[in-house]
Amino acid sequence: xxxxxxxxxxxxxxxxxxxxxxxxxxxxxxxxxxxxxxxxxxxxxxxxxxxxxxxxxxxxxxxxxxxxxxxxxxxxxxxxxxxxxxxxxxxxxxxxxxxxxxxxxxxxxxxxxxxxxxxxxxxxxxxx
Length: 128
What we know:
By secondary structure, the protein is an alpha+beta fold. The protein has helices at 33-40, 106-127; strands at 59-67, 71-80, 83-93, 98-99. The longest helix has 22 residues, at 106-127.
């Protein structure tokens, strides 16, 4: 969602604003772009009506740990109550366009894919 309405999109948890469906509960729920914008894109959406009371994490943070022509390794940290509870690295192979190491939770992997897409788009813009 790069419509110019975010004052600093690169500061968002996924490096840009996104649209889509809510998966906070583990199920895919259709919701409005406004809902996604105001809750999901910012992390720690504690007033979101879809957020389960009991959950493994509140937010997932990403950063690029290493990048080469062949692979990009993304570091992730899962947080609960503003504290890290899990961390690791996920490696993406650029030739096969596939994750070589993946997180067992599909929601974390989907978020990592969004983050990586934003990172790659930003890198392409720098090269041009």
